[in-house]
Design brief:
Number of strands of chain B: 21
Number of strands of chain A: 9
Radius of gyration of chain B: 25 Å
CATH architecture of the largest domain in chain B: 3-Layer(aba) Sandwich
Distance between the termini of chain A: 34 Å
CATH class of the largest domain in chain A: Alpha Beta
Strand content of chain A: 35-45%
Helix content of chain A: 25-40%
Structural class of chain A: alpha+beta
Strand order of the largest sheet of chain B: 4-3-5-6-8-7
Number of domains of chain A: 2
Oligomer: heterodimer
Largest sheet of chain A: 5 strands, antiparallel
CATH superfamily of the largest domain in chain B: Thiamin diphosphate (ThDP)-binding fold, Pyr/PP domains
Helix content of chain B: 25-40%
Strand content of chain B: 15-25%
CATH architecture of the largest domain in chain A: 2-Layer Sandwich
């Protein structure tokens, strides 16, 4: 078992009930663990939510956290993975002044080379969307910063595992 | 009252009646076989109280003098009966006053259902009068909680609450119900909850892990069992006794495991932990196989983890998977209900008796007796000791009383010296260490088991934290025997100050009131003992009383509890003086 601190994604399948976010985040708070990113969305199963939580921890502590999470009544199952065991994406949005599109020819090259997508353009600003690894979004941020960014935001990490998780089968056993 | 019959899809018939949410709450409690509830009324729960008034022939409501008292009484009720304790409070301060008892129940795995009133749903989040976010506040200290804002959601929420509170590893559950949900009418029907998707209360026991455990136990030369409350909660006492008797294993208990087997059982080698017995603490670091059953390796039990039983193979019988490897790394984890697991283990064990290994416990007990126990229970010096009071209670009760202790020196003395013949007889606040627990918990215990002798033992500090519950004792005619061991100090803190803070007794000395007058003010028979020659007679008088009785015993001011493992020390570094 790894004794080095590293980034882990914790995937938690839960009932879609009010208050669960509180319960799950309290587990991290009690142990003084900073959550690097958190995303909650519907999962592949109806009425089942999926939390994707990124933490920087040692594996033995991740396992203890998983135990505490699974202990919550409305949690179906929790898993943890290193980043190389998952396929993940982060999405960033950049709001930039429209005039730069015409006055700074380099901007168009940056958009093209970064494979970013223009979401909307109006007379005052345009919005770029870039999905990818954290470093790719950071790189785009660095390049655009030179020209000025009006607004910037980045999503939490979302991930699917390379391995199958067989949650539907697990739920079947709960039903029987 | 309008009644209608609905045929559902499975063609079964459910009789429904149109009733209010508050009546539904009471009807749900009755359906869950609740006969006693502890609580305190207020604005946001008044519709429920109105229904309780109508249903008082079915449910007895106990008006405690503070909501904290209601939770501790519900805990005492649950701990002695094995049933779910129920308490009820209004919104805001009523609800927040429950929190200490809920946290206590959570860490000590006590099944409890708390119902709180809440402001009207349209006022939620508006800082309305007596509004608090009790669901948010109670989240870290409940097994489960929820807020109900619609009358029709009440039955399912209460059914789920009872199921979750009592199943698997038990715990407290809170349901917060808005006033409009209490007042609105709906078509009521009730169905008990038997499963919750996503909740697996008892993990399946793998027979291979039981076989592995049996192999290790059969090969062990120096096995030691440490059992906890899990044995009592799963009603595994008989299976547990059969296992240790067949394999001849000396067995020690955590504070909440006390009374699962009789104190006098030859394989019962005493308590482990900070103020536990000498032999099981020292020999934890000598055993070759440590068998933990229904216990959670609390830091008060293990002392310094780096040196805790590192030489031993560790087997952990446990219902809660999150406890496995949480504090102590196990070699074999047997998940599941303790009773079921131990019944599977029994036929796989070889008969054994380990005479030489058991002699080691006897030898160390002899040392502890000479250095500590003899002077504690048969003192020759002038001041009364807490140990001799316990000894007198043992003499009078013949080991049949339930002992409910508060928190502090007297608690450790009570747990060390109280003799138990019956299970579920040691009721104390283990994990949270809640001063003020004892007196109200004793009320709940006595009401759950009126035929049993219930003796509450408190110190002068903890007693005053919930002293107002004498009013509940008086009003309910609960024949609790209340003993206060008065040393005019917050004794345990003072002991630490003496040992680790160069006797700087910062804010631990108490100037106490006339406790006898206070008890008598509540019309409770009372007596104060200051001399050894009066002690036996006073305890006898107390135990023979058919009514509640208060006994204050003035004990030596600076008596200490030994043995002791200082915080951060190894269990084998236990101090005898």
């Amino acid at each position: 078992m790894s004794t080095e601190k590293q980034l882990y994604t914790i995937s938690v399948y839960t009932e879609n009930n009010i208050g669960l976010l509180n319960r799950i985040s309290a587990i991290f708070q009690r142990r003084h663990i900073n959550i690097e990113s958190l995303n909650i969305s519907p999962s592949e199963i109806d009425n089942v939510s999926r939390f994707t939580i990124v933490v920087n921890m040692i594996e033995v502590d991740v396992k203890k956290i998983i135990g505490q999470i699974e202990k919550q009544v409305e949690v179906i199952k929790a898993y943890y993975h290193t980043l190389d065991q998952v396929i993940y994406q982060i999405s960033g949005l950049f709001k930039v002044k429209s005039e730069l599109l015409f006055e700074e020819p380099q901007i168009q090259n940056i958009i093209k080379n970064s494979h970013a997508r223009i979401v909307t353009v109006n007379t005052d600003f345009f919005v770029l969307e870039k999905s990818g690894k954290k470093e790719e979004i950071a790189e785009l941020h660095e390049q655009l910063s030179v020209y000025g960014i009006m607004q910037y935001t980045r999503s939490g990490l979302i991930a699917v595992t390379k391995d199958e998780m067989r949650i539907s089968e697990l739920l079947e056993t709960y039903n029987n | 009252m309008e009644t209608q019959t609905i045929k559902n899809e499975q063609n079964t018939t459910t009789v429904t009646e149109r009733i209010s949410g508050s009546e539904a709450i009471v009807r749900c409690l009755i359906a869950e076989d609740t006969k006693i509830i502890y609580g305190y009324p207020g604005g946001a729960i008044m519709p429920v109280y109105d229904e309780l008034f109508k249903y008082q022939d079915k449910i007895h409501h106990v008006l405690t003098r503070h909501e904290q008292g209601a939770t501790h009484s519900a805990q005492g009720f649950a701990r002695i009966s094995g049933k779910v304790g129920v308490c009820i409070a209004t919104s805001g301060p009523g609800a927040t006053n429950l929190i200490t008892g809920i946290a206590d129940a959570q860490i000590d795995s006590t099944p409890m259902v708390c119902i709180t009133g809440q402001v009207f749903s349209h006022l939620l989040g508006s800082d309305a009068f007596q509004e608090t976010d009790i669901v948010g506040i109670s989240t870290p200290v409940t097994k489960w909680n929820c807020q109900v804002t619609k009358a029709s959601d009440i039955p399912a929420a209460i059914a789920k609450a009872f199921y979750i509170a009592k199943s698997g590893r038990p715990g407290p559950v809170l349901i917060d119900i808005t006033k409009d949900a209490q007042l609105d009418e709906f078509d009521f029907s009730y169905e008990k909850c038997t499963r919750v998707r996503s909740y697996n209360p008892v993990p399946k026991t793998e027979i291979s892990s039981v076989e592995e455990a049996a192999k290790l136990i059969n090969a062990a030369k120096k096995p030691l069992v440490v059992w906890g409350q899990g044995v009592i909660l799963s009603e595994a006492e008989e299976a547990f006794k059969a296992v240790i008797e067949k394999a001849g294993i000396p067995s020690a208990w955590t504070i909440l495991g006390a009374s699962a087997i009789p104190t006098s059982h030859p394989l019962n080698v005493g308590m482990v932990g900070m103020h536990g017995n000498y032999a099981p603490n020292v020999l934890t670091n000598d055993c070759d196989v440590l068998i933990a059953i229904g216990m959670r390796f609390d830091d008060r039990v293990t002392g310094k983890l780096d040196t805790y039983a590192t030489q031993a193979k560790v087997i952990h019988f446990e219902i809660d998977p999150a406890e496995i490897d949480k504090n102590v790394k196990t070699d074999v984890a047997v998940l599941g209900d303790a009773k079921a697991s131990l019944e599977l283990l029994l036929p796989l064990l070889n008969e054994n008796s380990h005479p030489e290994w058991r002699q080691k416990f006897a030898d160390l007990y002899a040392i502890e007796y000479e250095k500590v126990i003899k002077d504690d229970i048969h003192p020759t010096k002038e001041g009364l000791t807490m140990g001799e009071v316990l000894h007198q209670i043992n003499v009078q009760s013949k080991g049949n009383a339930a002992i409910v202790s508060d928190v502090g020196q007297h608690q450790m003395i009570a747990c060390r010296y109280a003799e138990f013949n019956k299970t579920k007889s040691n009721i104390t606040s283990g994990g949270l260490g809640t001063m003020g627990f004892g007196l109200p918990a004793a009320i709940g215990a006595k009401m759950a088991a009126p035929d049993r002798e219930v003796v509450s033992i408190s110190g002068d500090g903890g007693y005053q934290m919930t002293i107002q519950e004498l009013g509940t004792i008086f009003q309910q005619k609960a024949a609790v025997k209340v003993v206060v061991l008065n040393n005019d100090f917050l004794g345990m803190v003072r002991q630490w100050q003496q040992l680790f803070f160069d006797k700087r007794y910062a804010s631990t000395e108490m100037v106490n009131p006339n406790f006898v007058a206070i008890a008598e003010g509540y019309y409770i028979k009372a007596r104060k003992v200051t001399k050894r020659e009066d002690l036996a007679d006073a305890v006898k008088e107390m135990m023979e009383s058919k009514e509640a009785y208060f006994l204050e015993v003035c004990v030596e001011k600076e008596g200490n509890v030994f043995p002791m493992i200082p915080t951060g020390a190894s269990v084998s570094d236990v101090r005898l003086e």
